């Protein structure tokens, strides 16, 4: 009898915990990702309710890469996104500057009959004065015309002049118009980088869809959310780079 009473004594707390789980709508632990992901799901629901109370709609999630390594490599996805950001930084540093230097021409891509090559692999680039860069195409004279076209179409506001196998590139004066042209170029470059970022995201999301019949919907939702957060973070970093570059160019 005493044992029965003790069991009855615990019944209200058991019912309370059971009803709490029903009210919260907590799903069972998803197959394949373990109790840790289940805990993240609970955190997600509590955070969502808390966020709504504060008038916020965004919920942060953070899944350990080790928990879902059999589904997707989140670290690799993040590295691919950061590589796009770094490429934008390099482009800004190399190609979008008020003062055009010889180094800015190094990686202009020249399309030849034998393929695509950086300009510095076809010609010798040197700065003769602050107002003049010279490209010596003696080693590949047949590519002189293609190199001239690539320089002219580089978006750097350059107007090269050809003398045999020598390409002379006058450096334009730093006018307000030139600064605004560079700012537009920076914006275009940022948009292209964001497009590349979206491709990384789309590739990852497409990979996740292959597992829809193998893991729970909540697991897929969390992973998609994680990937979107990485995308948003990289895009925000690009916006900061663009703002800084625009300020540098326009003052």
Write the SSE topology:
Layout: H1 2-24, H2 34-53, H3 74-95, E1 109-112, E2 115-118, H4 119-122, E3 124-129, E4 132-136, H5 144-152, E5 161-163, E6 166-170, H6 176-209, H7 217-250
Antiparallel strand pairs: 1-2, 3-4, 4-6, 5-6
Helix pairs in contact: 3-6, 3-7, 6-7
GO molecular function, one term: ribosomal large subunit binding
InterPro entries: Ribosome_recyc_fac, Ribosome_recyc_fac_dom, RRF_sf
Protein name: Ribosome-recycling factor, mitochondrial
Notes on the structure:
The chain is 58% helix and 11% strand. It has 251 residues and is of the alpha+beta class. It folds into 2 domains: 66-96 and 175-250, Topoisomerase I, Chain A, domain 4 (Orthogonal Bundle); 102-170, Gyrase A, domain 2 (2-Layer Sandwich), CATH 3.30.1360. The strands form 2 sheets. It has a 4-stranded antiparallel sheet. The chain has a two-stranded antiparallel sheet with strand order 1-2. The radius of gyration is 29 Å and the shape is elongated. 23% of the residues are buried.
CATH classification class of the largest domain: Mainly Alpha
Q: Could you name the ranges where pLDDT drops below 50 across 5 or more consecutive residues? A: 1-57
Say what the CATH topology of the largest domain is: Topoisomerase I, Chain A, domain 4
Straight-line distance between termini: 86 Å
Shape descriptor reads elongated
User: Roughly how much helix do the residues carry, as a percent range?
Assistant: 55-70%
Trace the largest sheet across and list its strands: 3-4-6-5
Count of the domains: 2
Strand content: 5-15%
CATH homologous superfamily grouping of the largest domain: Ribosome-recycling factor
What is the residue-mean pLDDT, rounded to a whole number?
78
Number of helices: 7
Output the radius of gyration: 29 Å
């Amino acid at each position: 009898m005493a044992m029965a009473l003790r069991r009855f004594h615990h019944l209200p707390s058991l019912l309370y915990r059971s009803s709490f789980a029903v009210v919260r709508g907590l799903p069972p632990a998803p197959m394949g990702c373990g109790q840790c992901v289940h805990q993240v799901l609970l955190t997600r629901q509590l955070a969502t309710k808390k966020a709504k109370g504060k008038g916020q709609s965004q919920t942060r999630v953070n899944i350990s890469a080790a928990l879902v390594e059999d589904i997707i490599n989140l670290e690799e996805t993040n590295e691919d996104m950061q590589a796009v950001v770094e490429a934008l930084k390099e482009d800004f540093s190399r190609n979008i500057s008020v003062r055009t230097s010889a180094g800015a021409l190094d990686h202009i891509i020249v399309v030849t009959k034998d393929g695509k090559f950086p300009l510095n692999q076809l010609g010798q680039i040197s700065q003769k004065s602050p107002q003049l860069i010279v490209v010596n195409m003696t080693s590949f004279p047949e590519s002189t015309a293609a190199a001239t076209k690539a320089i002219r179409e580089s978006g750097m506001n350059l107007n090269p002049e050809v003398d045999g196998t020598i390409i002379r590139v006058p450096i334009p004066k730093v006018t307000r118009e030139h600064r605004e042209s560079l700012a537009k170029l920076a914006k275009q470059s940022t948009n292209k980088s964001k497009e590349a970022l979206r491709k990384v995201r789309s590739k990852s999301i497409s990979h996740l869809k292959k597992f829809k019949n193998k893991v729970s919907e909540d697991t897929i939702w969390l992973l998609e959310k994680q990937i979107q957060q990485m995308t948003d973070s990289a895009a925000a970093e690009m916006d900061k780079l663009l703002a800084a570059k625009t300020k540098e160019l326009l003052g």
